[in-house]
Each structure stands twice: as structure tokens, then as C-alpha cells.
Fold these 2 entries.
Entry 1:
Amino acid sequence: MSTEEKSAAPRSLAEALRVRDDVSLAALLRSRPDLVTPVPTDLTQLATRAGTRASVVRALERLDRFALQTAQALAVAADPAPYEELLGLMAGDEGDPAVTAALPRAVALLREQALVWGADDRLRLVRTARELLAPSPQHPSPTGLGPTVREATAGMSPGRIQEILAAVGLASTHDSVSAVSALGELFADRTRTAALLAALPGESREVLDRLVWGPPYGQVTHDPAPHLRALLDRGLLLPTAPGTVVLPREVALHLRAGRAHRTPEPVPPPVEAAATHRPQVVDATAAGQALAALATVEELLKEWDEGGPAVLRAGGLSVRDLKRTAVALDVPEPVAAFWVELAHAAGLVASDGEADERYAATPAYDEWRELPPAERWARLAESWLTATRTSGLVGGRDAKDRTLSALGPNLDRSAAPEVRHRVLALLAGLPEGAAPDAESVLGRLRWERPLRGPQREQGEQREDDLRSRLARWTLAEAELLGVTGRGALAAPGRALIGAPEPAHPAAQPEPVGPGDKLPVHHHRTPLAPAPVTPAERGAATAAAARLLAPLFPEPLDHVLLQADLTAVAPGPLERELADVLGVLADVESKGGATVYRFTPGSVRRALDAGRTAADLHAFLSRHSRTPVPQPLTYLIDDVARRHGRLRVGAASAYVRCDDDATLDEILADKRAAGLGLRRLAPTVLAAQADPAALLDGLRAMGFAPAAESAAGDVLIARADARRTPPRAAPEPVPDGPPVPDDTLLTAAIRAIRAGDLASTAPRKPGHADGADGGQAVGGELPRTSAAETLATVQAAVLTGEALWIGYVNAEGAASQRVIAPIRVEGGFVTAYDHTADEVRTYPLHRITGVAELADDAP
């Protein structure tokens, strides 16, 4: 490419991309990852893909409010528009200093994302974006501006246009084109338009004031009032359809003092602090919440240890089972749904996949329980941060008016991880210990992502409404999980998102001029979470666990026994102590200290699990800092003395007891009538009920029977923990293609450059030109005969020149390549392929044709 061609202004987006360096192309592909999936063959295809409707819509949706306002202003500006015109539309006639300072960065961002191309004197918004943002009666512009005078008068009769010229004091013309141009120039002249408006009655000015900020369309009757007739006669309102008029864009801009937007927003709204706490208090509160979170998840899985609730036919938990879970955890149903979904996201619970399908803990739960507490919490927090399943939707309705159930389908929202990460990042930007004002957080998120299409998610009215609710849920869930404490981000939560330690506010970045390139580190939109590798994510999780570990109290190996048959655990207990105590006593209350209560039923539960009275006495003596109360000793001995005196087995069932008086007492009890008991021997009763029902019935009568095996041994009533087969945690649903890493970007740019070289390199004219076997025109493959192909390739081996070839692979896919032949033998040519940047071998019969490159080819 010659120096003159390089310096010439680009005539298309493809040419604008062609003059970019690799760093700029990498920034484009990183900010719009859909462009690299799959890798384009050349820069022309990249430009075409960047202009498709789906890709442009996605790019516009990821702009912040000011960048979007800039694009909207370009949509109503001339095409192309000089930078000064855009600045006037954004800053107005007075010139807003904040807008003036921020506009170069917004233009640079639009250029980087290939939404705007061209030099500062010829800025062009890509055609698809202009079509999406330009005003029309069906889709009014977000700026509130209507069509230009030229567009509004397109269907007007020439005579009517000449009448308008006469009414505003302009000379008549010989054609409508010049008449419309004269009228447009009049309205664009501030002085002349001000004089024209000053002559109008006050009622006419009121009509213009109602239309000036949009919508610009209004309704008129067949016989309009005089103040409306004055506007119509002067072209200040132009008819667009019967009974409909529009305020021309030039007039509206005059009334707006040149501004396209009523309120430009060049600076993001600040996130304000609602309260401030000492960082130590925040970290301690978060650590307490983290401990409670671990206890809640363990309690949930303990409830489902022997098999949890059944899976609905459509998937998920029933409303009744969710209520039962909420009662068992002593939390509201939405909070219970959060804990259930969190355990599922962490891979700790899943369906067992059996015929009678139920939820149960996974083998990963046993591995998770063996981890140190801080690492267990970090695993939960990471799963929550990256999960796309959204528990806040439970109980709502989907697009088909079906109830959304916990663990059920249709709970994935791809925006959830992004919003969670951004909310925590905004909290990390506040001073240490500062809890944010929720409304200011929502306002900041709306500025960073203002444009979201309606009904982007099934069952949701608006995507921006969903994102606001996601942000509110994030604040509440982060507090439940212990990522925040008293609303402020704790140190482990800061490490979890990879945020730097708090420091003094950084200096403002250097201003960017209108022609400057956006710095590389600005390639991400503000809301997008920083892409991290699994290694980086693991390092962040490990750092969070390290910061949390010192905040956790050391597990206790003792409890405080009290005379009212309760035990107080003043902190978290060692696992073995907690497991045994959970069987021996019932949890009465939770909090900073857990209170356990001993009852005859709980003691019998421990005896059914294989413990003896001596074991229980020794256990309590070993782990109590206070003397074992006498009432508790009596309770254990009394229950143990009666436990097992009755033996129940399968006859269909029988009762065996060495004390025949006890059996007489049972037979005489009216409550035993339903068990179908009859005496077989002085010490044996037979029953029609099954063993389990017989055990429950006798216990309800106040006895303490024990089950026995066919050999007469006591059965230990400790069910084996039910586990599902190995299950993987649910995969998050991505919000579009993933951001490419540096390795992929390097390879993609190299392939695009090589493909562009193959498609644009100049060819020598000669025998390869012509309709029969000539050089390709318009991107077609070159065509030469087999003899010509072989001769040209052999000559290139001797001269070392590069060739342009057309090639069809074994699958029938055609491509163009630039190769430097090395040798030709056996029907194959071995050459260095500039397109693939490697040496390859090609069958000669698959080469459609060859052409020599021009001498000035790169």
C-alpha cells in the first residue's frame, strides 16, 4: 500500500480497521467478543460482522450513559459529522465544560468498539447503529428530536412548500429541493429563527415548548386554531400524516440552545455512604455471619442426610417442601430458597437420579465438611459470586405463568454474576467501613448500563428492572453470607473480588483529545467484571480464606451444662463434639451461643444410635466445664433403664419382654388396640402392625422399646447418610461469548491479518487475468489451468516470490491464501503459508488457480 493510500481518509469501516495496529484490534475484539467467534477470515469480514444488527445491539447495550448519549447525538447529526458539530449537540451553545472534557473519551470509546469510524472532521456512526438510534414515527429518538426539514417535507407538494417560504419571508424558488434547503438554512440560523419566533403569539410558543423535548409529534384537527395555524403556515410544525404534525429538528435544536439531550450526564453519579463503621467491627460482623452461613448449610444438609424432599416432575422443590425447609432452618422462605440454591451452586446437593427421585447431599459435601471453616466459606462465596441461578426469582412467574420453584428450571439469569461483581466493586470503592446507600448504587448501575431492551429475560417486564432487583438481592445476600458486615464490604469480601486494598483516591486520568486513541486499559465497560483465569480466581478465593481464618474463633471442646436440662455452647464447637451433641440433645436457640435441651426423646435417640448410658455420662463429664447436673444424670439413667426392656422384631412384628407384668400393662392399655396385639407366651406378644409402626405406637404410650434383629441383637437405629452419585456443580449460563484471552487474541489477529493480506494483496496482470481463467474479481478464487498452476508454482520456487492461490480443502471449503513455495514434488507443493503463519503442504489438484503478487504488495 502506497504512502498516499495510507494517509487517505478511510472510505469504509473495513479500511478504518485496516489501518489500526494490533493493540487497537485486540481492544476491539476484547470489548466485543462476539466478533471473534468464529475468527473472521479477514478485516472485511470483521467489519461486516461488526455492523450486523445483533452485534451492534449488544455493543450499544454495553455502553455507559454518556457514551450512549454521544452515539445518539451522532445519529441525529449530519453523516459524516465534524467533531465540532457533535460537540455543539452535546454541550449546547453555551458549552458545558464537563461535557467538553468528557466528550473526547466517549468518542474514543465508540471508535475503539468500531461503532464510530473516520477522522475528527468526518465522524461516521455505523449504519446499523444509526438506524437503531435515528428518530422515526414508529421509533422516536431517545433524544426527543424529530426529522429534519428535508425528511419531514419529503411528501409535501411543491406549492405548499413555496407558500411556507413566502410566509417566513424567503424568496420563492424554481424547485422544491432549493426551497427546502433555504427553509432548513433559515431554521439553522439562530438569529433569524429567534426573530421568527419572537413574532409568534404566546400560545404558539407554548405549543412549541410542549414539543421541544419530545415526543416531537402532535395531533391537530382538520381546522386548527389560529395559534396552530401560525405554526403550520411558517413551517414550524410540518404535517407527517393526516391529523399529525411534527416539530422539525432544526427548530427544536434552536429552542434547546443546540443541545441534543436535556440533561447530558458526562460524569457517573457517585455512590454515597449511608453509614460508616469501624473496619474491625465490619470484619467481626461479617465473620459472625460467615459462621452462621456455614452452620445453616450444614443444618440444611443434615435435614436431608437420609434423603431429602422429592423432585417435582417439572424439576425443583414443591412449595410445601420449601416451607418445611424454612421451618427447619427457622428462616423466611426466600432466605431458605437462597440457602438451598447456594448449596446446589456449590455442588453440595443434587437429585439422586433414582426412580423415586429425591434431593440429597453429594459426595462433595463430605469432602467440603473436612475443609477448614474459612476454606468452606470461601468455596460457598465463590459459588455465589459466579452462579447465574437467582434465588430471588423463586415464587415468581415465568413467561408461561408457571411458578418458579427452588432448584427448578428457568432460574438462570446470565447478568447475575456481572451485577454481583459490580455491586461489590462499587462497595470496594467506598472508604473502609462505609455502608452504601442502596439507591445510589442502583443509580450508578443504571448510568453504567442504561440501554437494555425490553423483555430480555423470560418472564421479566424489563431487563433494567431485573438488574435493579439483582443489585438489591446482591446487597441482601452478601450480608447473609458474610461478604459484607453491617452493609460494608469486609476484608475477605474485598479479596474475593480481587479488589486492591483501600488507598487514597487516585489522581484523575490525563484528558484525552478528540483525535487521541483510548488507552488500552480502558477497553472494558465499567460494569463488566474483569476476566480472570481459573488460577487467578483460585488465588482470590485462597486470599479471602486467609483473611477470614483469623477472624473465626477457635472451635471449643466444651459446653456449659445447666440444671434446667440445657447445655450452652458459647461458640462454635469441634466437629466431633457438635455431631454427638446434635444427637444427644435438641437445638433450642441459635446465635452467638447455641442452647441445646436434653429430653427423653433426645436421650433415647442417642441410645438408639448405639450409645450406652455409661458412654453418655463419660461424654458429658469430659466436655462440660460445669459439673453434670443431677437432673440430667437421672434423665439419662431413667431412659437407659427402660430402653431395650421391650424388644420388637418381625413376625409381622412381635414384642418380647422378660417382665410379663409390663406386657400385661401394654395389653390393658386402650391405646394398644390399634396395634393388634395378642400374647404368644408369657414374655412375647405378637402384633399385626409392622415393626416401625409398633415402635412408634409403644413410644407414644410412654415405653422405650428397642428394635432387634432376627438373631436377637439390638438394631442400632442410625440410618446411613444418603448420598447421590458424583455430581458436578451447575455450570453458569454465560452472557454471550466469553472474553478471549491474550493467547486467542494474538492468534486471531495474526489469522485476520494474514487473511486480509491474501484478499487485498495486489496481483500482477498477465495470463491469469480474463474471464476464462483470470484473476478473481470481487473476492472470487483465481482460476488457472493445471499446467499454468504447476508452471507458476515451479517458477516461484526458483525465484522465491510469493503467490496468491485459491484453495478448496477436503470438506469443500474455499479460501484464498498467500504462500511462498519451497518445493514441488509428487503432486504436492510445500510452501510457507502467510495466512496460517506456518509451513504447509497442499495437493496441486486442490489449487483452483494462482496469481503473482504485484511488486508493491506488502
Entry 2:
Amino acid sequence: MLTLFTDKPLRFQFSFHKVIEKLEATAADSTNWRSAYATDLLARVNQHPELRDGITDIKQMNENEALIRELLADLFPEDLTLNEIKAVSLPYQSLAFNKTQRFQNILNDAGPDFSINIRDFTEHQYYVLSCCIILSEFYNVHFDFSRPLFYDIPTKDGIVKHYRILYNGDFLEILPTKEAPEITPEQISELIDNYDDLALWKKTFPVDHWTIKGFVIMNLVDVTTESALSTLKEDLLSKQPPQVVKESLQNAFRSIFRLPDIRIGFSRFDMDEGYFNNKAVGLKFDSYILGCEMDARLSGEPYQCIMHDQTYFAGSDVEKMLLEYPDSKLLKHLHDQGVQSFILAPVIKNDTLLGVLELVSPQKNVLNSVTANKLDIIMPFLVDTIDRKVQEMQNHVQALIQEHYTTLHPSVYWKFKREATNYITETNAGLDYNFKEITFKDVYPLYGQVDIGESSITRNRSVQIDIGNQLKALIAILDAAKRPGKDLAIEELLFDLRTFYDELNTGLRADTEQQIQHYIETRVYTVLRSLPAKDEVATYFEQADAHTGAFHQQRRNYEKTLSLINQKLINVIDARQAEIQQYFPHYFERFKTDGIEHNMYMGANIAPKLNFKPQDLKRLRLWQLRVIAEMEIEQFELKSILPYQLGVTSLILVFSTPIAIRFRMDEKHFDVDGAYNIRYEVIKKRIDKANIKGTTQRITQQGKITIVYAKAEEEREYKKYIKILQAEGILDKTVEKLEVEDLQGVSGLKALRVGVLHNQNLAVLRAASYDKLYEQLG
């Protein structure tokens, strides 16, 4: 018997016994007009007992092909053979028998070398799935880990089409053999927690100890468009290389348009300079509308459609269009590239033109204004991806500007000035001079962060509230405007909007916001503008304004919350930094994320004219703990006026071993130097999300400062700082000592966690000098 996998708990018996039993019942009923036919067919079937008892050899299937086809005639109507994609099979196997003509035609087009196999279906999945079928049948235990199954079958044109597999198991039964073991509840409990242990599943369910008798009817459903979209979404959201994403995009368009020779181009629109270019935005595509000899601006009807109407422009016959517009540079350029039909689609986000998607084909009429509507299902995902890539590029540009033109921190400026002076002196004397690396050895690193908690959750909640209010308003307007039984289009819109509202309340997926907004803009607004209730519609559009409308209020509140918190934290640390720099110059840098992170480096090499003492490092460490506590207190006080009552978590990393830092000339910033010193950066990156050892609780907690360290002397040192701030009424009396879970490449870390007392007199707090604190260091 042809099977997909060698090892299987279920022994196959390809049998038609259930169909034969039904035929026997028909033959026994003399009142049934088909009784004589059934009797005659049974007589011929009984001459081949393997049809009832079970076929175990594919040869027997072929020998009885005509009889089997007649036996299954009611299940495979001849009138539907060119419509249905159907065959007889066994569960999850590559066998397909008694195929309909449409199914056979699909396989013929795939070619003689094509082998039909389930997509991404492994022996492990098959074995465990078979065991789950046995558990469900005999032990009433249901493990539902099944997922949609697909066949990927190429057409004769080379386009891969995707078919979802649906099984009808009405003609199957499962029987244990005499050797089949009894499965105990304890074994079932063990299997629950060990899906990945295939050896355990095989031990519990030995090979060929159960029999599956009968057959399944396999139906295939063409889901090429849906599957192409799903794959494309995964690739667009993934971190796949640009070339992989580009190929996925190309294949998706070819599958959706069912054109094997379709090509994709993209032209980016530069808003600052007002023209199109072919500079890569993460994904590098050729452009078919731009050329070296062309002005990089659209004109005429394409310009009107894309720039003003913000809609597609399609040309079904380039040669015919050239006869009508012989002076068109665009049409001439397309024709010279062998393009016979094309679609230009504007890529627009928030009313901003990002670029133009170009679809071209060497065939006439295959791309046109009708097929252009297929873009509606794919453009939202493409728009979001290009928008994200544009934002990433803009961020990168800003980062480069900052890296190349940033002002050097005053604490290290002297060394760069000296090197620049040496360069000028030597080159003015006609000598060659190579810049020396700017390094600072034996410096002590300090790292800290004050992170805004639950920012992602709050953002999602704000989106849910805003979109929910918008949906309710639309439902109310359309509900009031509909006429029972007469406005089917409005009824359909209401159904979809209510479905969106229900789905929105169950949770927010990554594309929920974009999907709903796209539906509203493309489907609802056309109907909305045609309604007689002009005042209600006008009010709705006022509320839909992203900058002032009520339907974006919560999202604006979220952004305002993050902005106010970050600005408050920045104000505190920047002001206090100016004070502490006067004691001993040290390198300082901060980063604004969902909160504020900072790095500091202190040592004799940064200020060689001064006498660096251990006391200077202790002062800076006490300063860091005190200023983070102050940032916590200021943020807590700010909460009363924030749109969202978000808190913060604070973290300090203690690292007592001096390290070296080097200024990277290629990236224009300081980085840790040397393989051993990299460990510091590794710890910094991994402790943020670390848990308390043996638990799922984070080491950080709102309202508390967590101090991570490795050495006993570090613990003693920071306990002294904590005592000083406890005496000042800044920190709580209770200090927790924690063990940090082992991280990749890092183990043995510990932590102190202490609460911050927020009931402070802010005027006194802000006016306080840290000088008296430093005196307590001895």
C-alpha cells in the first residue's frame, strides 16, 4: 500500500465495507426502485472480497478501478466531475484514487514529474496526530492541535496554486489489534507535556497496533489567493532578507492575478524634493516608469489619477494608447521595455503618497482597470510595509545625521581636539598623518534605565477604545438610514461593522487597526457620503480627524502620556548631570525609548589632569541611585495629570571591573573595546527582561529600584547607599535580595530591590543638593 510515512500507529485497510453495507440494505428493500441495480452490483462486488475485507496492495486498486468507480458513483456524480476537485484517499497520505476529471486535469497540468505531498507535513506531526485520533476514538481524550493542510500544485504556466485539503471520514472506522496496549491516565498525562518526544509517543502507541479500515473522501478547495496573502503577510512581518520578501511579493501577485509573466516595479516619491526616484526602501525593486532620459515626474492622466485622485491608472494596450498619445514619454518608455499592459497604483498612508506600485506584463489586455481591483486585497499590507520601511529609513537617516554631526561630550572633547590638532599640524607640514584610535582604558561603566511599564498594552487598549467608538458611530448612522428589506448594501455593511466590533473586543491583532480602517475607507465612506443625514455624517467626519477628532482621542492620549513621562525623566537626569559633572568629569549618554536609558564611564583616562580616586566612583554611584529615585518620584507625581496612569520600573547594573571603550570612527560613537569587555554589553542587553530565579516574576517591579550585581563587595557597597537614602526618607526600609535567573552566557547574578517612597515634598526634593549625601560616604 502506498503510504507517506513508514512508521505509523495505524495499519491501513483500504476498504469499501460501509458503502457495500449500504448497498446490501438497498438490495434487501424490494420497495426501493434501485433494488435490482444494487443486487446486480453486489453480485459483481462479492467476486472481489478484498473490496470489503481490505485492500493492502495498490495493484488491487488498479485492477478493480472500474468496479470501484461504479461502487462510488453516488458519492462522485458524473455531472460534477468537471466542477469538484475530489478523490478517494487515506488520512494524511499521498494516495489519490477515483479522482474527478477536474482533479486529474490539475495533476496533468502539473506534469509527469510532479509528486503530490502535503505542505510542511512531517512524520512527527503525522504520528502524533494519528495517536490523537486513537485517544479520541477509544479514550474520549481530545487533543486538538490539527491545522489546515494544503497541497501546492503548479499549473502548466508555472504558477503554483494552493488547495486546502478537507477530509470526510464517514467511511472510516478504527479497530485495535490483539496486541494493542491499554493506555493509562498516567501515560496520557505524560503525553500532554511531551509533544516533542516522538520516542515517547511511539513507545506508548507502538507501530501498527491499531487498524484503520475504510477510506476518506478528499475534497480540495482552491485557496490560492488566501494562501498567497497569508504567506505574503508572514514574509512582510518577518525579518526575512529583502530578496526573499521580494520573491514572495512577486509570487503573491502572480498567484492573485494568475499571470506567470507579471513583473513588479516600485517608484518612491520624495516629498521633500517633489519627484519620484528608485532609491531602495528596504526592498529594492526596478522601476518601469523611470528612466535615465526621463523627467522623474508623472504628467497627464497618470498624474491626475495618482497624485490628485489617489487611485489606480491602468493601460490595457500600450500600442493602442501610443497611437492616441504619441508624445507620451511614459508610454514610449514602457513600450521600449516590452510592456503591453500595466497598472500604476499609488501607495498612500495617512493621505501621504509614499510611492507608486508598478505592475507590468508583456501581454495585451491582461492588466486593465477591471483586474486592478484585485489590488484592494493586497494593498493594505503592502502600504503598511512600505510605510514601515520608509519610517525605518527616516530613523536611519536621522541616526546617521546624529552620528556624523553630533556634538562630542565635553568630558572627552579634549582628546579629539588633540588628535585633530596633530592632524592639522602634520598635514600643514606636508607630512602624512593617520588618525589614531580614540580609546579610554580602565574606565568604570555605569548603566541605568527607567522604563515605562505596560506601554504596549496601553497602546493596544487605546486603539481598541478609539476604533470601537468609531464603529459604534458608523453603526448608529447606517442603522438609522436603512430601510427594512430595501437597503441590502447597508445591511451588509452593518453586519461587517458589528462583526468587526465583536472581534475588536476579543483582542487586537497586529493588522486589526489597518484592516478595519481600510474597510471603512474603501467600503463604508462611499455609502456614507450618499446618505441624506448630512449633519450626522459631517459630525462623524469631524470626529474621524486624526489630529482633533474624538475617534483618535485615546491614541493621542497614549502618545501624550509617553511624551510627558519621557520629558519629565529627561529634565531630571539632565539637570542633575550638570551638577555631578562638576565633581569629576565623566562620559554620559542617554537614550529615549519607552523611558530613559543612560550610560556613564568614569576613570583617570577620561580626566588625566585630575587625581581619580575610588571615592569619585562611589559618589557617582550614589548619585545614580539618588537620581533614579528622584525620577521615579517625579514620574509618580506626574501620574495625576497623565491621560493614562502608567508607572515605571527602574534598573541599575553594577559592574566593578574596569573596561576599555573605543570611539568607532566608522559609526562615530563609543563602544566597548575588547572581547572580554563585551560581557558587560551582553549583561546589559539581557537583564532587562530577566526573571527572579525559579519564578516567572521579573526582577524589575513598578515603584521599586532593582540593582543587579555579581560580587559580595558590590552588595555591601550598595546596601550602604540604600541606607543613606533610607535615612533621607527617599527609599523604603524593606530591601529584597534576589537571585537572577541564568541568562544565555551569563549566570550567578544577584539583585537588591528596594521601594521608592513617593510621598515627597517636591519643592524640597527639587531644591535639594546632593552634597550632604556625598559627605556620608566618609
